[in-house]
Specification:
alpha/beta; Alpha-Beta Plaits; four-stranded antiparallel β-sheet
Length: 325
């Protein structure tokens, strides 16, 4: 039957994709995408703008039809029964449709009507949502008068009004201040404890550290998938933090030096990946002989950003991705 899971897939699998594709004309926004999200996971879909994250989530939400392959949400096919999927999920797009001229409470009531939440269940449900979002004191404030972080919390509360088991979040913290980002992730952890499975997309590599498992996306495909620690441990060579007095000049010098696998700018310094420690000592000597003053050079544990960038061909870092949804 079209609505059943593929053979051998457990009912503990809340999301499954099989060779999922979506083309926009000549552009392959998502290509041959295979992933599995298990019940109770906080799964991260991570990559730069244009990697195909939004297209993937819109397909999973039953909003966008794939041009190839299939996906299943709780055993329901997005190809054969997309409308049924919407009963099982909460979908929060990058720009959630809050009504700016309605109050916080009026927005919640509107979405309760939209999702046909029984009136007898609304009071307790709204109180629960106010509890984790801390929006209770602002229930009479217009949504348009809320800060960016509070709007995101209200959008999440509205998405959760019908008690779904799966939450699909498309870059929910994009453009939100660091404190609000931290608070938002705390809410996600609280939701996990309540038994809600979560798939979240983000362009912030530091947020990938907070997931159960993460899929790195690049140009519409998954280039690596695993637990955050596993992905960082896969980075070959020796990662060093280099802080020179002349960042631009040092980058130009490093480009032509042997012994360097790759390097990228991090804040006021560089993360440089060497083949081994001997090569690191050699490069330091070469830089100093070229007149570069080095304020610091120390070995570091690779970050998630280091792990991701180590997988991307350097030509793609220079030219950028093709435009994708």
């Amino acid at each position: 039957m079209g609505n059943s899971l593929p053979n051998g897939v457990s009912d503990e699998c809340v999301i499954r994709t099989e060779r999922l594709c979506r083309d926009f004309g000549e552009t392959k926004a998502v290509h041959d995408l295979n992933l599995t999200v298990m019940r109770g996971e906080l799964f991260g879909l991570v990559g730069p703008d244009g990697a195909g994250k939004t297209t993937t989530i819109r397909i999973l939400a039953g909003i966008l039809e794939p041009t190839g392959g299939d996906a299943w949400i709780n055993g329901i096919s997005v190809v054969h029964d997309p409308e049924r999927i919407k009963e099982h999920i909460a979908y929060m797009p990058q720009r959630f449709g809050l009504y700016q001229d309605l109050t916080v409470m009026e927005n919640l009531i509107f979405y309760a009507d939209l999702f046909r939440v029984p009136k007898k269940n609304r009071g307790p449900r709204i109180e629960l949502l106010f509890g984790f979002s801390r929006l209770g004191p602002f229930k009479d404030r217009l949504a348009g008068a809320l800060s960016g972080g509070m709007k995101q919390k209200l959008g999440l509360a509205c998405a959760l009004i019908h008690s779904p088991h799966l939450l699909l979040l498309d870059e929910p913290t994009n453009g939100v201040d660091p404190v609000s980002r931290r608070d938002f992730w705390k809410i996600l952890y609280d939701l996990l404890k309540q038994g809600i499975s979560i798939l979240v997309s983000t362009a912030y590599l530091d947020e990938a550290e907070r997931t159960t498992r993460v899929a790195f996306m690049h140009q519409g495909t998954i280039i690596q998938l695993g637990e955050p620690k596993t992905l960082k441990d896969m980075v070959d060579g020796v990662m060093m933090e280099l802080i020179p007095d002349d960042l631009s000049g040092t980058r130009a010098l490093l480009s032509g030096m042997p012994g360097i696998v790759d390097f990228n700018v991090f804040g006021d310094g560089l993360h440089v990946r060497f083949k081994d420690l001997q090569e690191a000592a050699f490069v330091r000597e070469k830089l100093e002989n070229s007149g570069v003053k080095i304020h610091g050079l120390k070995r570091i544990v690779p970050s998630m950003e280091d792990a991701f960038l180590s997988l991307i061909p350097r030509k793609d870092l220079v030219t950028g991705d093709q435009p994708r949804e």
